[in-house]
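Quick one - inputs below.
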Amino acid sequence: SSELTQDPTVSVALGQTVRITCQGDSLRMYFASWYQQKPGQAPILVIYPKNNRPSGIPDRFSASGSGNTASLTITGAQAEDEADYYCNSRDSSGNLGIFGGGTKLTVL
Amino acid sequence: QVQLVQSGAEVKKPGASVKISCKASGYIFSAYYLHWVRQAPGQGLEWMGWINPHSGDTNYAQKFQGRVSLTRDMSISTVYMDLTRLRFDDTAVYYCARDDGNNWYYDSWGQGTLVTVSS
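Output:
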């Protein structure tokens, strides 16, 4: 399969924990990376394989994976975490990229 | 520091072509793949293809096969994305993004280039 599926919208209360998931057959073979995008801005990398954070990304962001599902967890969500989140990986051939449809995270 | 600087916004008519540049600095240009990703207004990210600046090898999403071409100029550390036979639904922000070629993640992105296709 060459698709990654994400829930379109997720909400979380301020300070609570939220998990954003990404499903696809290629995730059985390849790790996912995760990107945060705020309105009018380019995406930024928040998690890269395997559950690594670039410098400057808070440690409340973490990732995991099992089977055909990758997950991004934000532990203690902050108002500034409100954004669109995208997963990305390779397709089953390993030669092409694919993005999930994105999840709009609302922090209540 | 790593920087990817893209060329400016473009307005094109349907059927025309557009060529966007992505100039890299702050790292060894040949050591990282460059991918192109686009985002239509209000929509998600869509992967288009990659180029290996070292070899010139490319790979494209099936959706864009025959319409997109990625090239590079090693002398000025710049990659170009050429999209032909533009349609209204090619209106989007186009991004270049860096990848080390092994682990498939994009640790640096260009600022984006808006391409508007309008008659």
